[in-house]
Design goal:
The protein has ten helices and no strands. By secondary structure, the protein is mostly helical.
Length: about 280
């Protein structure tokens, strides 16, 4: 009897690695911006806040122009385009609210954990949020303020002693839009620091209105200097400087309010970025 020879040993074949058909590329700021754009245009708060802002700025600006046109009171040296100030002041509250909600609402829903897991670079996330929010709010504001300015000029042309120059048009449209969009960007940074929507909105509304309200109730002569500074640097007075209708006789004028707010926003945004990199979600 012949014993069969054993079969030769064969090593098991190693399974090949899976290769995805989707091309893999390194993530960059453009991807974060696209992600933030998808989020901001898919939530209802964006439509409601910017929609109400448009109604306030356009509606109040139109009503003010019609009221002045129908009255017999002369405008004297009051700039024609200054009728847009009241609507822009109220509309700025909507922009502030959207700025806070852009970042603080993610902390309320827990979405911020998913965001930072998908994009661990926290500076990139905050930068993308700021870029998307600023460009969106600035474009909507620029369209609205330009529309209001054109209608006011058509209704009130010839009723004032001074016709608006090119610089007046530029500051009443581009300047005002930049200032209010920057105010919303400041609100976004405050929302990132506080991480609570109601608290951050309250802080920003206090910053918007409290200095002017406090100044109105400072009757003592010993507080005259403080009262004057609060008038000069309050946000409503800085906003009115773009229309050449400042409440105070001194203080920021022309484009100076924009540079002041730009410096404050840069400092707060830097603080928000530093804190976001240091603490847990």
């Amino acid at each position: 009897m012949t014993i069969p020879a054993p079969a030769p040993y064969q090593q098991p074949q190693q399974a090949g690695h899976y290769v995805s058909p989707i091309p893999v590329t390194d993530a960059h700021l453009g991807h974060a911006v696209a992600s933030e754009w998808t989020k901001i245009r898919s939530v209802r708060s964006t439509m409601w806040t910017l929609g109400v802002m448009f109604v306030l700025v356009f509606g109040i600006g139109l009503l003010a122009a019609v009221a002045v046109r129908s009255s017999s009171a002369p405008m004297n040296n009051t700039p024609v385009l200054s009728m847009g100030f009241f609507g822009v002041l109220l509309g700025s509250m909507c922009v502030i609210t959207l700025g806070v909600l852009t970042v603080a609402s993610e902390y309320g829903t827990g979405m911020i954990r998913t965001t930072l897991t998908a994009c661990p670079s926290r500076g990139r996330v905050l930068t993308a949020k700021g870029i998307v929010f600023f460009l969106l709010s600035f474009v909507i504001l620029l369209v609205t303020t330009t529309l209001v300015a054109v209608i006011q000029y058509a209704l009130l042309n010839g009723t004032s002693n001074s016709a608006p120059s090119g610089g007046d048009w530029f500051r009443a449209t581009v300047g005002v839009s930049l200032y209010v969009a920057l105010l919303g960007l400041l609100a976004l940074a405050v929302g990132s620091l506080i991480r609570h929507s109601a608290g951050a909105i309250t802080v920003m509304l206090g910053l918007l209105l409290l200095p002017l309200v406090l100044a109105l109730f400072m009757f003592s002569d010993s507080l005259a200097t403080l009262r004057e500074k609060l008038f000069e640097y309050s946000i409503p007075n800085q906003l009115s400087a773009f229309y050449d209708t400042s409440v105070a006789n001194s203080g920021p004028s022309g484009w100076e309010p924009l540079w002041i707010l730009l410096g404050v926003t840069a400092v707060v945004y830097g603080a928000a970025l530093a804190v976001l990199n240091q603490r847990d979600v």
